[in-house]
Each structure stands twice: as structure tokens, then as C-alpha cells.
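ugh ok fine here u go
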Amino acid sequence: MTIGFDPFLPWLVLAGLAILVAVLAGLGLWRGVRGTLVRTLAGFALLAALANPLLMQEDREQLSTVVPVIVDRSQSQQTPERQAMTDEALAGIKERLARFPRIEPRFVEAADDETSDSPSTRLFTALTSAVSDVPPARIGGAIFISDGQIHDLPNADQALGFDAPLHGLITGKADEFARRIEIVRAPRFGIVNEEQELTLRVFDDGPGPGGGASVTVKMNGAEIATISATPGQDTPFSFKVPRGGNNVLEFSVAEVAGEVTGANNRAVHLIEGIRENLRVLLVSGEPHAGERAWRNLLKSDAAVDLVHFTILRPPEKQDGTPINELSLIAFPTRELFVEKINDFDLIIFDRYQHRGVLPILYYDYIAQYVQKGGALLIAAGPEHAGEDSIAMTPLSVVLPAAPTGVMDEKPFYPRLSEAGKKHPVTRGLNGADQEPPSWGRWFRTVDVERPQGQTVMVGADDHPLLVLNRAGEGRVAMLLSDQGWLWARGFEGGGPHVALYRRIAHWLMKEPALEEEALTARASGRTLEITRQTIGDDPGPATIRYPSGKTESVAMTLSAPGLYRAEQRMDETGLFEIANGELSTLVHVGAVDAPEFKAMVSTTETLLPLAEKTHGLITRVTGAAGALTLPSILPVRGQVRTADPDRLTIRMTDETVLKGINTLPLFAGFLGAAVLLFAFASMWWREGR
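structure:
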């Protein structure tokens, strides 16, 4: 209770009246006037009534003690065993805290930050957010339910923002073990078919079994090696990049019995294959208008080393002139087609015919080159339909189409076939989406029998114009017209000859982006993008295997002819496996070196320094027998000075909140009237004497 005032007059006026009463009282006492004391008391009683004294009583309510309970729901906690432990511990803590009405628990589940590419366990960030609206004096303690793998730990000497115990309930077992693999050093780029080296390391966290570890290595889904690694030591590995473009190296170490999880037993590394100076051999059978189109295209590519020969003097033109008097260079047939044929990535026969320049045996060498993985392009003209056609040589075993001996001499617009609308070599060519196509006409094609492989472009009367086929391990393309130069010269507006020629050459050299059947995946932050390329029918849904082991089927939608896509936001990070039919690929979502996967073994050591500083308790939620063993709650008043080894100490707050104020005027009602009446009655009585 307190006494306050609510004066009827301003304090300055009351002060003046009080001075006046005091002066009169002093004057009366000095003059010896009878009744001065009574008059003075009556005056001050009147002033007290004007000051209106109040008796005030505050109505306060005791505030609750806030106890934040931070529940770790990060990926390291997603094993079935730890999920069960966490759920049981959370239910037990809720039940124990509910016994104390003055304790207000705040439960916060801290999962991975989905906006971050590098997942980590940030429990103290969640704690700060949970109590940001609470005064430090009201916080009675903090309880963490976690495996102990926390990545935003403050220093032991850093202030937490409140003076109360910090407790940790640790999931997992004391003797846990996990084996994981990491890539320590690796190149991001590599020249195709040249030796590369990376360094990996196998880690044994916890009391491991000891001994070596067997690591399986896959390149683009195919197993290429099995190596032995000693846990804790760097292991070098040498390999060759098999193709240009994106290549996926996967390393998997065999799981050990009793491991906490196998989610970090695999590591993936992406390496971009670079072709160094692609070697292309272009042989033109005779000078012609379209010869320069091929030459200009190949010469404009800085990554291509072009060797170009044009047959200017075939054997039938021999006129007896001595060789040393000719300015022509002799065609080095043996050097090109026997000794160095395997050095070339692509061989192009441009309007070439068999006229005795190449021995018949050399065509067999070229066929063998293709079947062993080489690439061959036939740009055919009228000579291909004649009796000197190279289709009449041993090269015919790898050619997808045999000429009928007839030339189709009529103007036509080159068009995409149904397969060509889906094939990556011709899909989306500029101008193909109109009828007629918005490019110039050609005027002749070589008529062929029913071709093998895929006919992706057709000419007049739907006769084959561009045929693509595989022969053994190699590839062959046949362009059955020599009129492509019309597009290069801009005839009737020209056409996309550069894009077409370049795609044909890159498909022949096995560019991954131009594969007819391909499954690729890429990650953009936490978003997984899946692309399925096919020249067949709808490939159906893709199956995603998460790092945690769960699988999910995702439908893909048609985005372009022969191109299906799916996009999905992932709630996990790590190495994902995507499969569709017989195709599969790997993709890593999030940072490769994310802290969440570097350690999966539960520990009590991380929170121990903070618990000791704040007199908290760190204990596991299960005992040696595997049963739940949660400590009880111990509320205390005042500052916590010692830690209880068996109970979770909670400092109860003394904070209150003002609900209202009750006031009682002292000079109001009968009491005030009685005092004033007594004072004036005393004055009257004294004056009456």
C-alpha cells in the first residue's frame, strides 16, 4: 500500500494557502491570541482535504516462468531410431512441465533452413527467436533435445542473453559409429581421355571396426574401379574423363554393420570434360559450291583442328606430267587412313567417290575405325548414286542406307520427320515450326533404300534426307544432298545450316547434350530439375531416391517434342538418385561440404561447456538398456548456483505484472466530514468561551 494525492486545487495554490495559514498561526502565537492552535489545526485539516490524500493498493499478478524447449529436427535426426527417441523425449518433457502451472514451456522445432544450400543445425538461432519477446528475468532455463551436432554454438564465455541453466537431452547411443567418405581435392575440368587425379578420404567417427575400407567408383553410372582406402588417410585415385560435357564420378564405401546411417557413405564429384583440339578429317571428292560451307564451319571453331584435302587430280586424269613438276600435294592416304586414323575424332567424306585414290582395303580400315568408336559423316551428291559410289566398297557395312542409283531432281523444302521433331540434332531448328518451313528450298537428293537408324529430315515426297545411325561403338550420319550451301549463300532467305551442321558433328562425336535417350538432373538451390530426353513415347514418371533412403515418384510433363521435365522443391539435401526406366543419374542438392553430413554420431561434448557454465545438465534420453530415462524438473527460487546431477533445474521468476490500482480517499465520506466537523466545532467551542 502507498499514499498518494489527487488535489482539488493546483499545488501552487495549496502551497500559498499553507504559507498563509502558517503566517497567521505564527502571528497569533506571537500576539498570544487565544485559540490560535485550534484555528491552525482546522486550517491545515482543510488544506489536507483540498489535497485529497488517497490510500492506493496495487493489484499485481505473478508472471509465468518461460522455458524454451528446442527440438532438433535436422537431417542428422531423421533416422528412425533418433526420430523415435526425440518424439518420446518431447512427450516426456511436455508431461513433466505441465505439472507446474507457473512454468510456460515454448516448444520450437528447428529443421534445416530450406533457403540455404548448406544445411546445418542452428538450434541457438531458434532459441534466440523463441525468447526474443521475453525479458531475460522471466527465462527459467532452456532445454535442447538434439543429437549434439549443433553448428551455431556460441563460445563458452559468450553471454546467452539470460541467467538460467541450459540443459541438453541427447538422442542416440553413447557408442555410436559411422563411416563416411569425402572428396578432399578434385579437378573441376578435365581433358577428355587424359589422366586426372583426385584425393578422397574415408572417416570412421566413433569406435569403428578398424581395418581398411572398400570404395566402389562409378563414372556416369558405370562401375570403373574398386579401390582400398585406410580410414583417416588420403587416398589418391586416377581416372580418365570419357566424354565432353558433364561427367559424374560417384564414390561409395560399403556400409558397416551397426552404422548409424548410410546417408553419408556416398560422395559425388562433377567434372566437366573438355575436348582438346578435336581433330577432323574432311575429304572433298572434287571442288564444288558446297565445299566451302563445311570448311568455313569447321575452321571457325577454335577447338577444331581441321585437316582438309580436296581431290583435284584423280587417277583418270593422268596425262604423263612428272610428279615433281606438279604443284599439287600428293594425298597421304597411308598416313591418314592407316597410321593416324585413330587420331581423328571425325571423318567427313564430302561428295567423295571411289576412283582409285584410296585402295579398297582402306575402306575396310575406315569401317573398323567406326565400329571401334569413330565417327563418320557422308555428305552425298550425285556421285553417291553412280557406279563409283563409296556405298559399293567395304564401307557399306557401316552405312545406314544404300543408294538406288536414282537422283530425285525436284525442288523441295527440307522438313523434319516425326522422329526429327523429337531428335536433339534437329529439334527446334529455327524456322521448322512453320509450314512450309521458313527457309530456302533445295533441289536434289540421293534416293536410297529403306534406311536403318533414324531419318530425322526428309526431302521431296518424304524421301530420306538426313539419316543418323550407330554402327558398333561408333556413329554414322548421311546427308543425302549437296544443296546445303544454298542456305549458306542466303538463297530464298537461307536456313539454319550452321546449327544443323554443328549439331550433326557434335552428335557424331557423342556430345551428351545431343543423346537421343538421356536423363539429366541439376540442382538450383533446393530445387531439383529433372530432364528426360527421348525419341520414343511418354517415358512415365521419374523415381527419386532421397539421401535418407525414402523414394518418391514424380510425374514429368512434356515441355517440347521429345523433352519431358519435372521440377520439385526438396526438403532434404545431399546425394539424390533419379531413375527412369533403365536410365539413372545422380545429383547433389545443397553444398557438397554441408556441415550436416560431416558428422552423424551423437555427442554430449558440444553442449557440455555451456551447461557447466550455467549449472545445467547434459544427459542422454535413453539408458544402457535402451529405455527412456528422462530427468525430473526441479523449480528453485533465486539464482541457480549449483547443478543438480539428476534433475533439470528451472529458476522460477519473481516478475509480476500490474493488473490495476485500488484507491481510497482519506478525506472523503464520513471520515473526512468528521475530521473537518471536529476541527470547526473545536474552533466554535473555543470562541464561545
